[in-house]
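Changelog-linked ticket: adenosine-5'-diphosphate example.
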Amino acid sequence: MRIALLSRNRRLYSSRRLIEAAEKRGHEVQVIDVLRCYMNIVSAKPSVQLEGQPLTGFDAVIPRIGASVTAYGTSVIRQFEMMGVYPLIESVALARSRDKLRALQLLSRKGIGLPVTGFANKPGDTKDLIKMVGGAPLVIKLLEGTQGIGVVLAETNKAAESVIEAFMGVRANILVQEFIEEAGGSDIRCLVVGGKVVAAMRRQAPEGEFRSNLHRGGSASLVKITPTERATAVAAAKILGLSVAGVDLLRSKRGPLVMEVNSSPGLEGIESASGKDVAGIIIEYLEKNAKHGRTATRGRG
Ligand code: ADP
């Protein structure tokens, strides 16, 4: 296969591992910076250009699109779909997973367990918003935040009100969520590939912290997940239309709750915690599925 890896940095662990796994199996990989691609939309024959050359002859495209380039990255993937190139992550699925409100709405529609979550733009009544999600303790999250930055625990209603109003004051988009205390500062990352959980890890926050992000000093370990957790992770990826996804679960008294579904999951933490060759599994999935024109939407989304 000829594979286009849409990545801005070939030296990142996940990019390196995917290149290595593909080359080991005899495939050819071209790393492409999406921001340097350009497209002629009016042309009847869709194409993607890079440095004066059309990008042709690819069997598959692997998007590793950073959050800040979601919109442009999605349109480059869509263009490849219109050309019939098989995308590991479809443009529509990427867009769904990156819009937290849309993703949570789609999951709730199908009855997936979720922490009680409130969304607001400019709530006239902050107290009612707090009451609606069950009151303090509450987690308030900046929608644009990643790696745990902008995730705040408000232990009292008064603190929650101040934090919400402060975020509103700087026009930040936020969500307000029930605090799952019994998760004990840990969450479970399930790596789903092709409808199966192929690896899982438990991330534990350091003492005195509730955020388990590895970037916030959390530690990862191997975990055995329950059949319900497995089914929940697989269903969440399917609902969003993701063939590869990192599904983050919180263990709660009422069962597994989906916190987030990540469409460009990092491979470093999960490969080292689980000892699995996740990059290899992803390439094998492509070998079985990358057929010309075989996408659910073919750029229609
Ligand atoms: P980010 O996308 O920035 O990583 P998350 O929403 O994943 O933000 O939150 C960061 C961490 O905070 C999670 O990994 C989890 O450990 C903790 N956390 C987030 N939401 C909740 C919640 N509702 N209840 C308990 N812990 C939470």
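Closing comment: Example verified and attached. The first strand starts at residue 2 and ends at 6. The domain at 182-284 is CATH 3.30.470.20 (D-amino Acid Aminotransferase; Chain A, domain 1).
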